[in-house]
């Protein structure tokens, strides 16, 4: 039996990316994407709903995301879903589900006034690693 853990989402950044360095020196960037959905309720009224997705990206791609992505900008992320857990200061176990971005495509600039490497679209190379990486922030 083959297993598949693949996520593909396109949305707008809800905040500027946050870049940090791991103890190994590798960079990690997190940001959040909002995706919107329109649907009709039981009465036929149009409804809108937003979902917020935590994204984490490593290596050179993390550097590119940190440099070129800005709040409000559109991005397409392909990756895998991961849930991490850690014990908080209060002793309570915390969980965070996120998408580990393996490929990030930068889209329209939205509210951003900084340009990407090409006109409006840039494809960063996927991170290929079998190494387990511990993310030091929540």
What does this structure look like?
- The structure is a single chain.
- The chain is mainly beta and 138 residues long.
- It has a single domain (7-123), classed as OB fold (Dihydrolipoamide Acetyltransferase, E2P), CATH 2.40.50.140.
- It has one helix at 59-68; strands at residues 7-13, 18-21, 27-40, 46-58, 74-87, 93-106, 122-123.
- Strands 1-3-4-6-5 form a five-stranded mixed beta barrel.
- β2 and β3 form a beta hairpin.
- The longest helix has 10 residues, at 59-68.
- The chain is globular, with a radius of gyration of 17 Å.
- Mean pLDDT is 84; it is low at 111-138.
Can you tag this structure with a few keywords?
single chain, five-stranded mixed β-barrel, OB fold (Dihydrolipoamide Acetyltransferase, E2P), 138 residues, mainly beta
Summarize the structure in short.
With 138 residues, the chain is mainly beta. The protein has one helix at 59-68, and strands at residues 7-13, 18-21, 27-40, 46-58, 74-87, 93-106, 122-123.
Chart the SSEs and their pairings.
Blueprint: E1 7-13, E2 18-21, E3 27-40, E4 46-58, H1 59-68, E5 74-87, E6 93-106, E7 122-123
Q: Kindly report the name of the CATH homologous superfamily.
A: Nucleic acid-binding proteins
Distance between the termini: 34 Å
| Helix share bin | under 10%
Provide mean pLDDT, rounded.
84
Structural class: mainly beta
Overall geometric form: globular
> If you compute it from the alpha carbons, what radius of gyration comes out, rounded to the nearest whole angstrom?
17 Å
Give the C-level CATH assignment: Mainly Beta
How many structural domains can be distinguished in the coordinates? 1
Q: Strand count, sense and closure of the main sheet?
A: 5 strands, mixed, barrel
CATH topology: OB fold (Dihydrolipoamide Acetyltransferase, E2P)
Strand fraction equals over 45%
Give me the number of helical elements.
Answer: 1
Report low-confidence residues grouped into runs of 5 or more.
111-138
How many extended strands? 7
Task: Please state the second-level CATH architecture.
Answer: Beta Barrel
Q: Strand order across the biggest sheet?
A: 1-3-4-6-5
Q: What order do the SSEs take from the amino end to the carboxyl end, as H and E?
A: EEEEHEEE
């Amino acid at each position: 039996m083959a297993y598949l853990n693949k996520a593909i989402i396109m949305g707008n950044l809800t905040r500027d990316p946050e870049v940090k360095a791991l103890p190994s020196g590798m960079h990690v960037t997190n940001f959040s994407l909002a995706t919107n959905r329109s649907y009709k309720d039981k009465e036929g009224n149009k409804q809108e709903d937003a979902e917020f997705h935590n994204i984490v990206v490593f290596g050179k791609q993390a550097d590119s995301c940190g440099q070129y992505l800005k709040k409000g900008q559109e991005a397409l992320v392909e990756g895998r879903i991961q849930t991490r857990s850690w014990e908080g200061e209060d002793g309570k176990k915390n969980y965070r589900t996120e998408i580990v971005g393996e490929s990030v495509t930068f889209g329209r600039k939205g509210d951003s006034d900084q340009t990407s490497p090409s006109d409006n679209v840039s494809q960063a190379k996927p991170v290929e690693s079998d190494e387990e990486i511990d993310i030091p922030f929540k």
